[in-house]
Amino acid sequence: MTDCLFCRIVAGEIPATVVIDEPELIAIRDVNPQAPTHVLVLPKEHIESAAELSAEHRDLWAAILAAAQHVAQADGIDRDGYRLVANIGRAGGQTVQHLHLHVLGGRQMTWPPG
Ligand code: 5GP
Ligand code: ZN
Fold first, then answer.
1. Which of 6, 16, 22, 62 has the fewest CB atoms within 10 Å distance of its CB?
2. Is the pLDDT assigned to residue 1 strictly greater than 80?
3. Backbone phi and psi for residue 58, each to the nearest 5 degrees, phi listed first
């Protein structure tokens, strides 16, 4: 039993809408979507944030990016464009301390983000 929300989703203890399930990662729909497509790509391994990634995670990070591309293609937002976001730490706005890459699209994204 872990108190990490995303580890519990990976373990199947908390339900989620899973759009990709691979040996190293899953992609789930965000429970509070900020855009028509809002998917989170996360490693099954508990890694606190993108700041913890090192050379040993090169293949994992590449797989996360590939999964994000697949999500964008599957949701039909790849041609118009979309946004990938990794929030890191408190000031970065990270609320779940398990690395995840947001895939946001299906509307015009604005800049700067809040
Ligand atoms: P962060 O702020 O850490 O970058 O993003 C965490 C994201 O996880 C938020 O967009 C939030 O809506 C999402 N989230 C929080 N709890 C759950 C949950 O139980 N299920 C799913 N699918 N997403 C969640
Ligand atoms: Zn975790």
1. 62
2. no
3. -55, -50
Quote the percentage of the chain above a pLDDT of 70: 99
This prediction's pTM: 0.98
- The rounded distance, in Å, linking the Cα atoms of 25 and 31 is 18
Q: pLDDT digit string (tens) for 18-66?
A: 999 999 999 999 999 999 999 999 999 999 999 999 999 999 999 999 9
Please state the CATH superfamily assignment of the domain spanning residues 5-105 in this structure.
Answer: HIT-like (3.30.428.10)
Distance 28 CA to ligand 1 centre (A): 10
Ligand 1 mean position, distance from CA 31 (Å): 6
38 flagged as catalytic: no
Task: Report how far residue 43's alpha carbon sits from residue 85's, in angstroms, rounded to the nearest whole number.
Answer: 15
Ligand 1 pocket test: pick from 19, 30, 97 the residue with the most ligand atoms within 8 Å of its Cβ: 30
Domain boundaries, the chain: 5-105
